[in-house]
Amino acid sequence: MRFVIIGAGRVGLRTARVLREEGHDIVLVELDRDRVKRAREADFDVVEGDGSREEVLVDAGIEAADALGALTADLNVNFAACMIGKHFGCRTVLRVDEDYREEVYQKYAKEVDEIVYPERLGAIGAKNALLGGSIRAIADIAQHLQVILVTVTEESPMNGYSIEEVALPANARVLAFGKKDGPMGIPLADDSLETGDRVAVLADFDVLNDVRQLLVGDEVVTAAGGA
């Protein structure tokens, strides 16, 4: 696929590296000359200019791009770039660095395909490192929803039970299931939970501890504290 990424700073450059490693074509758009130089030294195709201007994005090949990632630290630039990308039929991803009021968030969310919060993603990684044990946060889906990946332990109250028998709280549901060292897939009612198996769960923040207690047992409650 072909991607145009606005911003060759920390977030933009790391995203570009990951996409390039997966074999995709990347063009970076950056106004800062030092960042342009650094990105070119890393063998990226870079268009120097303001990513909120249509002519700059046309030079970057927006007409043939599959998606545009507006990943600068300037929300106004990011939003303008996304609107241009939308005009050219691209999937649009908008970077936001702060949690705005709900009405402001909704304004942007309605206009783009996806919003990403780099700081929030970094916080999830830090929380995982602090918690350790058999549970990992994958993503914050909404203000009060999170996807977590749970590894079943010997202490799990549900060890030996089937997916159908797992009585999760009302505000939680199983999204995917994988046997130990196997791929994740659609959970089946008769899949049995055994030590080392993994379960992806969508849960409201208010019931996360209940989900942890049910699928992992006392081990995670002790490790997580009040998280």
UniProtKB/TrEMBL annotation:
Domain called RCK N-terminal: residue spans: 1-122
Annotated ranges, domain RCK C-terminal: 135-217
Keyword field contains Protease: no
Entries under PROSITE patterns matching the protein: RCK_C, RCK_N
InterPro entries: K_uptake_TrkA (IPR006036), NAD(P)-bd_dom_sf (IPR036291), RCK_C (IPR006037), RCK_C_sf (IPR036721), RCK_N (IPR003148), Trk_Ktr_HKT_K-transport (IPR050721)
Cross-referenced Pfam families: TrkA_C (PF02080), TrkA_N (PF02254)
Name the record gives this protein: TrkA family potassium uptake protein
Keywords: Ion transport, NAD, Potassium, Potassium transport, Transport
GO MF annotation list: potassium ion transmembrane transporter activity
Role of this protein: Part of a potassium transport system.
One Gene Ontology term, aspect cellular component: plasma membrane
Coiled-coil segments: none
